[in-house]
Amino acid sequence: MKLLIVLALLPLCRSAVLPLPQPSRVVNCDDAEAHEAANAAVQYMNSNRKTGYKFALNRIEDIFVHGLAPVEVFTVELDLLETKCPSLSPTPIEQCPVRPVVERAVEGDCDIKLKKDNGTFTVIGIRCKSELDSVENMLKFCPNCQLAPLNDTQVVHAVDVSLHKFNTGNNTAFYLLHEIGRGKIQSGISNSVDVEFVIAASNCSIDDANSGAACVENSGAGAHFGACSGSVVKNQGAADEDVVVQCAVYETQPGNVEQAVVPHVPLAPPQTNVVKSHFHHNLHYSSLGPLSSESNSAEQLAAQGSHAVKRSLTGQSVPPSAPRLHLCPGRKIHY
Ligand SMILES: *[C@@H]1O[C@H](CO)[C@@H](O)[C@H](O)[C@H]1NC(C)=O
Ligand SMILES: *[C@@H]1O[C@H](CO)[C@@H](O)[C@H](O)[C@H]1NC(C)=O
Ligand SMILES: *[C@@H]1O[C@H](CO)[C@@H](O)[C@H](O)[C@H]1NC(C)=O
Ligand SMILES: *[C@@H]1O[C@H](CO)[C@@H](O)[C@H](O)[C@H]1NC(C)=O
User: Fold this and answer.
1) How far apart are CA 197 and CA 175, in angstroms?
2) Which residues span the membrane (predicted)?
3) Do the domains spanning 21-136+282-306 and 149-273 agree at the CATH topology level?
4) How confident is the model over 20-45, as pLDDT tens digits?
């Protein structure tokens, strides 16, 4: 009986996941139009993501167009590379350097649906994931190096002392840790820990903080972020560690960012946004905005688009388009 029900349901499920009909026209992966769609998608993703780093387009893997102008639906598959600009950085993506292979790159992979309406692209659905490049590429250049999980005790310690050094060198605002982005440990005669993290201005002055006031990240118009890199080196046998820190406090600030309420504890403030034990900020776990999973509206628009395939303006069936080679994937932009 159960089997019968399952069998009876099968055709329904099938039709629900049926792929879109034949593409209505061929767009190749390196056509200007494909890059226009990809750039709109990357822009959408970067502006909706508030954790980790921005991603840049590396290659258009595949692209399909359904529907008829003026309203068409584009399905694109993109290969991305993580850049060194934190998501909260105001630097435009075109000016963000991608992370080089020596640092163990992060590759992103996105399936995106866009609507093209009268020449304008709008994202209607997006799904992404990302992963670290193999460790060999890093070890080739730095045999004793390894990336550490973002909650690794050495990483957290290096961030603490780096941020502390930055705060003591600054006689005005007191900055809190917003997010740890990366941690690399190089062991050997000296042990060196390199970290990257994002800081946020708090409502405390340095004096407030020193007298134990509760400090929270400024939000709204007062929100103020910056990016830091710190390096903490301890030579074998040495009592002290050398701390070098460099922070760039952004002049312009991103739009609304969820406030991480961090009670002021002198060292090791807890983090809010990191999926612990991860080595990087995986796209799969970050919110990419309201269309982050294939939403109903995405499906509906896609359905509308495919419906349009079947009819010409006069309401008659359109013959299948003449065969034209579909040239994909496109070329790699970076490596
Ligand atoms: C389509 O775009 C053109 C040029 O951008 C504009 O002049 C026109 O008003 C638009 N049409 C509609 C229906 O939005
Ligand atoms: C102190 O913070 C300001 C921003 O509030 C920043 O521009 C400046 O570089 C910091 N000073 C030091 C010594 O780090
Ligand atoms: C910062 O804001 C928190 C929460 O609103 C408040 O408890 C604290 O007293 C404020 N700190 C200062 C120095 O004003
Ligand atoms: C890091 O987080 C993972 C998962 O939450 C946990 O199992 C691990 O013990 C944490 N490591 C440290 C050093 O806190």
Assistant:
1) 12
2) none
3) yes
4) 567 789 999 999 999 999 999 999 99
CATH of domain 149-273: 3.10.450.10
pLDDT, one tens digit per residue, over 219-265 is 888 889 999 999 999 998 888 999 999 999 998 766 545 444 333 33
By the 8 A CB rule, do 185 and 145 touch? yes
Task: Decide if pLDDT at 7 tops 50.
Answer: no
Average pLDDT of the residues in 93-110: 95
Could you say which ligand is closest to the alpha carbon of residue 279?
4
Q: Where are the domains of the chain?
A: 21-136+282-306, 149-273
Ligand nearest to the CA of 118: 1
Out of 153, 277, 282, 285, mutate this one to test ligand 4's pocket (max ligand atoms within 8 Å of CB): namely 277
- CA-closest residue to ligand 2 atom 8: 170
Q: Ligand 3: which atom is nearest the Cα of residue 204?
A: 13
Nearest CA to ligand 1 atom 1: 118
Q: What is the full DSSP assignment across 78-140?
A: EEEEEEEEETT--S-GGGPPBPPGGG--EEEEEEEEEEEETTEEEEEEEEEEEEEPPHHHHHH
User: What residue owns the CA closest to ligand 1's atom 12?
Assistant: 118
Say yes or no to pLDDT of 6 above 60.
no
Could you tell me the distance, in angstroms and rounded to a whole number, from the CA of residue 163 to the centre of ligand 3?
Answer: 20
Query: What share of the chain has pLDDT > 90, as a percent?
Result: 61
